[in-house]
Amino acid sequence: MAALSIFRALRKRAIPSFSPSSSSSFSHGTAISRFVSTLVLAEHEGGSVKTSSVSAVAAAKAISEENSISVLLAGSGPSLHEAASHAASCHPSISQVLVADSDKLAYPLAEPWAELVHLVQQEGGYSHIIAASSSFGKNVLPRVAALLDVSPVTDVIEISGPQLFVRPIYAGNALCTVRYAGANPCMLTIRSTSFPVAPISADSKCNTAPVTQVDLSTFIEVTLGKSRYLNHSSQETERPDLGNARVVVTGGRALKSAENFKLIEKLAEKLGAAVGATRAAVDAGFVPNELQVGQTGKIVAPELYMAFGVSGAIQHLAGMRDSKFIVAVNKDADAPIFQVADYGLVGDLFEIIPELLEKLPEKK
Ligand SMILES: Cc1cc2nc3c(=O)[nH]c(=O)nc-3n(C[C@H](O)[C@H](O)[C@H](O)COP(=O)(O)OP(=O)(O)OC[C@H]3O[C@@H](n4cnc5c(N)ncnc54)[C@H](O)[C@@H]3O)c2cc1C
């Protein structure tokens, strides 16, 4: 096991309990080099690097100011190369962009990706490998860790030193400080909401990192056939992505039906917000499960989180308690959601949402 020390703190909101002094020259255990170089496994879509992957770069930067950061992109076709150009200028700390262009890597399947990262690690000898804690990162990273025979540290929310990380445990009710004492590379998944990045404007002046093709001549996809890409389905919507939205409006079981849930959707539309749901609302079929927030759903930390008819079960809080402002509307004054809410309103959502819809100005 990589964990050497654990500090726990039960608390109302996610406030780190332990702040060890950080030092970029910190060194402990076996085979940990003072030179820090990080490989970031990046996801891309529509010719752009995903914001969660840029957050992984921000996390790499937090490991050490002197970190040499390489971003690895894989896929095939023109959108990969567009994404590579985007990656080269999306964060000033990126030292180089590595591009693996192959039909075998056209889809982000764990098996070929793991072989790829293994190959790139053998060439580059990175001290750290980081991915966002997305479905992709959670899929690929453990497989790579097994190939490299190291133990990954997952869901990191704070980096206190090159081998010292904070991660939530017990559905976010306690924070655990983990010292990685294994061999290189130290592998992490990070919660992107804990490493926010400023939106990149088109006219922003940013260094452009060199883009290098990965030599795939020795790349053997030995695991071919273990999984196959079938298709990708997602809802066509103009709403912001739940994982990155500034405002999230969430509805719970109290909405009673998919028809009534449209009240939440209308409110989200007026506020330019993403829609979230509790597991009870998802299980009842009001909305698809990609909208579920919580321990077994998405982890969000928007500037404003509005919860309507949500009891505040521990598993739901695990996905939203780090939001900057939490507003809760519930007709039960003792609902646990009020313990984490910054603003609470005891009332009936079927009266309050229509009133909000009437009084809020139209979205420009
Ligand atoms: C292993 C595991 C994982 C889980 N993962 C998740 C997860 O990821 N996300 C998640 O959300 N849950 C998760 N759950 C389920 C969780 O425990 C709760 O059951 C769920 O969050 C409850 O959803 P809810 O608040 O919508 O429903 P309820 O708990 O039924 O609460 C409904 C609330 O609405 C209020 N209400 C009712 N009518 C009105 C009204 N007209 N106006 C205003 N308020 C009203 C009630 O007072 C009540 O507080 C998980 C459970 C387990 C065991």
UniProtKB/TrEMBL annotation:
Its cofactor is FAD. Pfam families: ETF, ETF_alpha. One of its GO terms (biological process) is fatty acid beta-oxidation using acyl-CoA dehydrogenase. PROSITE patterns: ETF_ALPHA (PS00696). It is found in: Mitochondrion matrix. Residues 38-223 form the Electron transfer flavoprotein alpha/beta-subunit N-terminal domain. Keywords: Electron transport, FAD, Flavoprotein, Mitochondrion, Transit peptide, Transport. Heterodimer of an alpha and a beta subunit. This is Electron transfer flavoprotein subunit alpha. It comes from Tetracentron sinense (Spur-leaf).
